[in-house]
Model the fold of this input.
Amino acid sequence: MKLNEIYEEYNKHFSTGILPYTKCMNCGKVYYYPRDSCPVCGKGDLKIMQSTGNGKVYSYTKFNNGFYGIISFSEGFRAYMDISGNNPQIGMEVEIKFKKIKDNLLPYAELK
Done:
């Protein structure tokens, strides 16, 4: 799969309210950020998967009156994104939602 095809697949998932992630079919590594080869084994045998959208705050920081953090998902990958809600704490459960920013739908984590 070429990188532009992976971005297209991610955007299709975003438009339906689903958080995608990538799984390497060679070594089994799962990760969020689009790449055209596995960051572990370097192979290009990749499959776009659908996340449940449920995760937990792994770490966070406050910046410009908002919160940003690393979310750890039940499927085994982590992603950095906005966190919506007050006073996030490590280990708090989140659900992925989407918001439109300049013509793009992008995921953010909403505290449960």
About this structure: The CA atoms of residues 40 and 87 lie 35 Å apart. The helical segments are 3-15. The longest helix spans residues 3-15.
